[in-house]
UniProtKB/TrEMBL annotation:
Sites where the protein binds FAD: M136, Q165, K189, G190, A191, K203, T228, H229
Protein name as catalogued: proline dehydrogenase
Positions that bind substrate: K101, R290, R291
Enzyme superclass (EC): oxidoreductase
Keyword list, A-Z: FAD, Flavoprotein, Nucleotide-binding, Oxidoreductase, Proline metabolism
Alphabetized InterPro entries for the sequence: FAD-linked_oxidoreductase-like, PRODH_bac_arc, Proline_DH_dom, Proline_oxidase
All residue ranges annotated as the Proline dehydrogenase domain in the record: 47-302
The organism of origin for this protein: Paenibacillus nasutitermitis
The protein's annotated pathway: Amino-acid degradation; L-proline degradation into L-glutamate; L-glutamate from L-proline: step 1/2
A family per Pfam: Pro_dh
PANTHER family, sorted: PROLINE DEHYDROGENASE 1, MITOCHONDRIAL, PROLINE OXIDASE
GO process terms (BP): L-proline catabolic process to L-glutamate
Length: 310
């Protein structure tokens, strides 16, 4: 990653937590181009998009946006919303599961209350035969997120897993430990602003570590979600799994809603399991900014969208 791109990404990620920028953006709703990356503001809109993706042979994981709540009352709203979402997925026959963020359940406010809320959602999902993914947020929450998932597994819940980010130095050790515990993982490169003290800076280093983590998981035989839009890594996975005779039932490719749609459809037609990460809700701003920070081309898409509307 060159200096200019790094500065661009850092500046945008700095806006993700800016309350004034967030309020200004959300006032204009989806008009800023967020609709490319966010499936809608309501559960009904997200379910409609999930059905469309299912019709194309693509599974989904639905994410009700709303990280870093400021009160336990907001956390309780998240719990109720996820339970309703799980019931709707089951009722509508959606091929999908759910993803949630621990800070959305009050992790920064009350650890015990957060655990109780997440446990209630995982229990609801278990009753409907659905899986729950605890998304990995920025590094202050890594240990707690892993501990919560491990706690739930120890309690007998087999329908829960989490995410490991390849740009963190610690991720090799985390994958080794969680693989030993047979934990279902999603592997990603990582999209938060992190210090060079704890994270790789260059794209090549992150890509190399991503391959190491994928290889370790594929060799283990434990089910793994490989979340990337990088065609070089996807081709490498295809080649490696053919060479090692690893069945496609042991892994899936995951991509974000609205990104590389033709590639998602192409992989699905080839017989690979593909899952689209489908976020929705009114608190879309931080997620939207991280998508813009990933690629300058995403910013140009938004600029063109705004100009076209005006």
């Amino acid at each position: 990653m060159d200096i200019g791109t790094r500065l661009f990404r850092t500046a945008l990620l700095g806006l993700a937590g800016n309350r004034a920028a967030r309020a200004l953006s959300e006032r204009y709703g989806m008009k800023l181009g967020a609709s490319r990356f966010v499936a809608g503001e309501t559960m009904e809109e997200a379910i409609a998009q999930a059905k469309r993706l299912n019709a194309e042979g693509i599974a989904v994981t639905l994410d009700f946006l709303g990280e870093s709540v400021s009160s336990l009352e907001e956390a309780q709203v998240s719990e109720r919303s996820y339970k309703e979402l799980i019931r709707m997925i089951s009722h509508e026959g959606i091929n999908g599961n759910v993803s949630l963020k621990p800070t959305q359940f009050g992790l920064a406010l009350d650890r015990k209350a957060c655990e109780e809320g997440i446990r209630a959602v995982v229990n609801e999902a278990a009753g409907h035969g659905l899986f729950v993914r605890l998304d990995m947020e920025d590094s202050p929450w890594t240990d707690a997120t892993i501990q919560i998932v491990q706690m739930l597994q120890d309690e007998g819940f087999s329908n829960v897993g989490t995410v490991i980010q390849a740009y963190l130095y610690r991720s090799g050790r985390d994958v080794q430990a969680m693989t030993a515990n047979k934990m279902n993982l999603r592997l990603v490169k990582g999209a938060y602003k992190e210090s060079r003290r704890i994270a790789f800076e260059s794209k090549q280093e992150v890509d190399d570590n991503m391959r190491r983590l994928i290889k370790a998981r594929l060799d283990s035989g434990i089910y793994t979600a490989i979340a990337t839009h990088d065609q070089r890594i996807i081709r490498w996975v295809q080649s490696y799994t053919r060479m090692r005779a690893i069945p496609r039932s042991k892994f899936e490719f995951q991509m974000l809603y609205g990104i590389r749609n033709p590639l998602q459809r192409s992989l699905a037609r080839e017989g690979y399991k593909v899952r689209s990460y489908v976020p929705f809700g009114r608190s879309w701003y931080p997620y939207f900014v991280r998508r813009l920070a990933e690629r300058p081309a995403n910013v140009m898409f938004v600029v063109k969208s705004v100009v076209w509307r005006n």
